[in-house]
Amino acid sequence: MVSKSIQILFFLLAALPGMALASATGGNSIDLTSHWVGYTAIGIFAIAYLLVMAEEFTHLRKSKPVILAAGIIWSIIAWYYASHGFTHEAEAAVRHNLLEYAELMLFLLVAMTYINAMDERNVFEALRSWLVAKGFGFRQLFWITGVLAFFISPVADNLTTALLMCAVVLAVGGSNSKFILLACINIVVAANAGGAFSPFGDITTLMVWQKGVETPQGVVAFSTFFALFIPSLINWLVPASIMHFAVPNEQPSGGGEAVAMKRGAKRIIVLFLLTIATAVSFHNFLHMPPVIGMLTGLAYLQFFGFFLKKTYHRERNTTNGDAAIELEHDSQMGDVVAFDVFNKVARAEWDTLLFFYGVVLCVGGLGFIGYLSLTSELMYVQLGPTTANVIVGVLSAIVDNIPVMFAVLTMMPDMSMGQWLLVTLTAGVGGSLLSIGSAAGVALMGQARGRYTFFGHLKWAPVIALGYAASIYAHLWINAAIF
């Protein structure tokens, strides 16, 4: 049983654009699955991913090993193909992978820029200070932060949402480690669950949505994601309801200092929502890649930033209202320019974006070597799509869900819409089973170091697994018509 699980993991990680590229290269793809080139590539990727998983202990940024591994893997493939007279096949394969990466990277870059802009305008800090100042009890805060994490993550992504809610928990939790641990677990589960029913909630859901440009008949449309709302809600509510009784029924001490949002903060929120609407419209009505709509939305922010910059010095001289107080505060902080959109671009999570590049190229190289058909046969023919999609979620708790979902999307198994929604759900919420299974969990282990830990989360894994199973059964029952 263990060896079969390892085999499933091995083949799933190795899967990628082989079949699609075989036709593109005129059938000149070489099967290297039993060759030293294939074994070497697998070994390189395995070593790189072990370093990624050990990031918490080595403090080596996760992007570094996978970027290096990607370069080595493709150089070996290109050398072998060139030595056998195929000089352009590897180049075509790399370009195919780069195109997929570029679309997702630019999409995420725009979203991160907007999030950073709202952060700089104190949107999230104002929300945090308001919650702290209200004087809610621990159990109330447990549910409030969970609800906010669930409903903010579909728009702001699960990582940003988890970090924001964790800041609230740390601010009010003080020395109560039990409350902080339980609240952090609840936030991770809620943020991952909320991100599973929206294309903007997680990288995996975004990949599923964007893939529809290439194969509109086989992947999930924007509105169809919301069929996962109730299963996602159940995924969070089941463990939260059980953990509720373990949360200390106490009142936190102290309060928070009020924080006001900076000039233009509300308008930036509106522009972000307008940008999302633009991306959806480009995809649904113009049949264009959603990234074109997102980049158009970036122009909204650039023009508004230009307005803020031009009106900064004029309003700085005003002597009435809150603007004068705010601008005086900005001046004291050494703010030379009121708003610079490129500062927000620079503050994007570049390590995550470059890690994504390394994963796409590494897994793309392994797929080009020839492991795709083996994976598809094992996962979706022998085991069946339902079992395979449930396993995908479990694997997402051990290995990052990006390569897992990217492999599934490139295999493009023949599945019903219900099955595509199932794999979207399991890949999104499966990472909650372990603290290292999602970006939100890993980030919170760093933010609440020593209080939210791997073993602290592991203690509640059976309860989270109960929610995972309940959400799958809920989806199979509620959305039975689309299976």
From TrEMBL:
One GO molecular function term of this record is: antiporter activity
Query: GO terms for CC?
Result: membrane
Which positions carry the signal peptide feature in this UniProt record?
Answer: 1-22
| Keywords associated with the record | Antiport, Ion transport, Membrane, Signal, Sodium, Sodium transport, Transmembrane, Transmembrane helix, Transport
On the tree of life, the source organism's domain of life is: Bacteria
Transmembrane stretches, start-end: 34-54, 66-82, 102-119, 131-152, 158-174, 179-200, 220-247, 268-285, 291-308, 354-374, 386-408, 420-440, 460-482
* Matches recorded under InterPro entries: Cit_transptr-like_dom, NhaD-like
Q: Where in the cell is it found?
A: Membrane
Membrane topology designation: Multi-pass membrane protein
Q: Where is the Citrate transporter-like domain?
A: 51-428
Give one Pfam family. Answer: CitMHS
Question: What family does the Swiss-Prot or TrEMBL record give for this protein?
Answer: Belongs to the NhaD Na(+)/H(+) (TC 2.A.62) antiporter family.
Q: What is this protein called?
A: Sodium:proton antiporter
